[in-house]
Amino acid sequence: MNASVNSDFYSDPTFKVFKVPKWRAYFYSFLSVKLWGNIPSDVQRKISSLYASLYNKPISKHIIPIYLSLNYTDKNYLQKFKPPHGKSDFKTFQDFFIRQFRLAPSNPSPWVWPCEGLLCDSDKIENLNTVAVKCDTRSVDTVFGTEENPIPSNYSFTNVFLHNKNYHRIHAPISGEITRIQHIPGDLVVLRPWIYKQNPSLPAFRNERYNIDISDEIGRTWYLSIVGGPAVGTIALPDAVKVGAKIEKLNEIALFYLGSTCCMASPIVPRFHHKNTFVEVGASY
Fold it and tell me: In 43-175, where do the E strands start and end?
């Protein structure tokens, strides 16, 4: 089975892992966790909303052609997408950021990647270390809000970092039924995994997020955590995404208004991708 969908939907097949010197990574981590991270969460959200609102201004649409020229070698990249909310044109930069596929990807594989970006963390649940957050030691169950009903230790944990230039909608990795939706308020520390070195998923343990559980067709639960970062105006779920709803593989389940990462705990191991590789929406998991 091919690892990727046979299509031209994807923006960055030659994605390179960003590397920064250790001293700079530690400095960025200090700014994110020790300074910004100690600002009260509600203040972080207010500042982030103010920043995000700038991209809803009509004048911000003039950023789009510049952004395209800087980030995509494909001259026809934008033609693969359509403006959101039935608009006829991209009226703001935010419209571009939450662009939609004109034609959704397809793949016969029963398990697919739900998003596009850098697979910055991947391991068995049983191998993952706890993370210290504000003097509180947290396990991976904290990410998904499952402390009372822990995720099986033989499940696989993955974390995909969505760079600003990546497609920012999340799709169902399987067909099944939505069994739980949980909103966890939290911080909005910087998501970029290369500044946390040995703990690339640290923001997922503390940031604001939506957790969505999907039971597949043979009764196994797939856990998704949709994590926000600085400048996130909101994480939006479609009206059809609700507990008890049936969902088909690659149906849209969430979108970000700026900045994001997507964690998943699954009953199977990724078959074609490993840590620090680029994954695509709809590629075989």
Answer: 81-82, 100-101, 117-124, 131-133, 136-138, 156-162, 169-171
pLDDT digits (tens, 9 = 90+) for 67-106: 999 888 888 899 999 999 999 999 999 999 899 999 888 8
Q: Please give the Cα distance from 202 to 269 (Å, whole number).
A: 21
Give per-residue pLDDT as tens, 141-165.
999 999 888 999 999 999 999 988 8
Instruction: Report how far apart, in Å, the C-alpha atoms of 247 and of each of 19, 177, 244 are.
Output: 38, 6, 9
Is the whole-model pTM more than 0.70?
Answer: yes
Average pLDDT on 132-137 reads 66
Q: Letter for the amino acid at 59?
A: I
Q: What residue ranges do the domains of the chain occupy?
A: 22-279
> If we measure between CA atoms, which residue out of 154, 159, 226 comes closest to residue 199?
159
Burial of residue 3, with CB atoms counted within 10 A of its CB: 0-12 exposed, 13-18 middle, 19 or more buried? middle
Report how far residue 140's alpha carbon sits from residue 152's, in angstroms, rounded to the nearest whole number: 11
Local structure of 14: helix, strand or coil: coil
Under DSSP, is residue 80 helix (H, G, I), strand (E, B) or coil?
Answer: helix
The pLDDT of residue 14 is 54
Note whether 72 and 166 are within 8 A (CB).
no
SS3 content of the chain, % helix, strand, coil (to 5): 25, 25, 50
